[in-house]
Amino acid sequence: MFEKRIKGHHSGHPNKSEFATKEDLYEFLEDGVPEQKEGVIYFHVPFCDTICSFCSMNRSKLDGELDDYTQYLLGEIDKYSKFSYIQQKSFESVYFGGGTPTTLKERHLEKILKAINEKFNISKTCEFSFETTLHNLNISKVRLMQSLGVNRFSIGVQTFSEAGRKLLNRTHSKEAAIEHLKKIKDEFKGFVCTDIIYNYPNETEEEVREDARILKDIAVDSTSFYSLQFLDGSVLSNTFSQDYYNIETDRKLHNAFVEEMFKGGDYEFLEYTKLNRKGRDEYKYIRLSHVGADVLPIGVSAGGQLGEFGIFNMRADLQMIGILPPEERNRKKFNALFQYHDIKFSDMKRYVSDETFANLMEFFKKCESEGYMSIKPDGIELSLDGVFWGNTIADEVAKIAKKEFE
Prior knowledge:
This protein is of the alpha/beta class. The chain has 2 domains: 18-289, tm_1862 like domain (pyruvate-formate lyase- activating enzyme); 326-405, Arc Repressor Mutant, subunit A. The chain has 15 helices and 18 strands. The protein has a 9-stranded mixed beta sheet with strand order 10-11-9-8-7-6-5-2-12, sandwiched between helices. The two termini are 27 Å apart.
């Protein structure tokens, strides 16, 4: 039914927005009243001490810049925390992405985390999360961060295979990675989550199943799993030809990983690319942003939204700011519905007309005939193959509904 699989979700650039100034934003933050009390703070730390062979993110290899960057983040925390709009918020998620935020030393982390707790209204049920690699997260750092409120780690394991770890430029051996991950799981009282990459060159089905078995043995709280993408600027993009890629191999490895994780009934889909140990990880950063919650962006390359303002920090001294009209904000929330395998018709109908919904139903019937989903009285539920094609399906849905948001 589809010629090409879209591997990663993105909400795309705004269809429409109006340029705004920093003064416009600050005036809003001083006088505005939040529509929703819950909020998110996203911090971006664009540094790594090693560069993964698959990575093309906005990051730089660490070169003695952490002291200056810490002072910059502390200044941003102090600046935003003084605005009335921010003071009215209760933050249910604080998320540090990168880069590798745990390249920050303990002395940096202590200052930053204390400032966050002192200057923002952090909910007692806040999900306080850090992306990290294994080698950047020693037990001393785990204990410090936990004492200052961090309760979730997203750890970039990528694979336990020795051949795969070498290819992806991971630091630990297979056995050392397993041992260190177990130590973190034993020490840390919060959620231990992982990232896994599958379908790297020459990966076997047994290797992807072994990754799943190890994660289950350690009882990780959730795992993201992504098919390798050859991104421009990455080492792999200059080393391997993409001719190795085969859609059926991609599907076979994807389904093998999910099937292995689902054995025993302890794990379930949280979204297309994330499996959750039942009753554990909530992934509040993404789930809150999907329903349109405010996301305060702090740090170079951090993006977010406060009220009707879309914000992207290009540099420490340069922000792109735009006013997002209601239809643009609704477009993002509608598209976000299609990151989950179980989608209610009532949620779709909040954003589209009867005519568009009828067109969507015709598309869903085609998907059902291919075995990608089941149409139920109150919604659709994607099959395993449907989840594999999920982002492609989401892209087609966005095209069908596009006129609703123009």
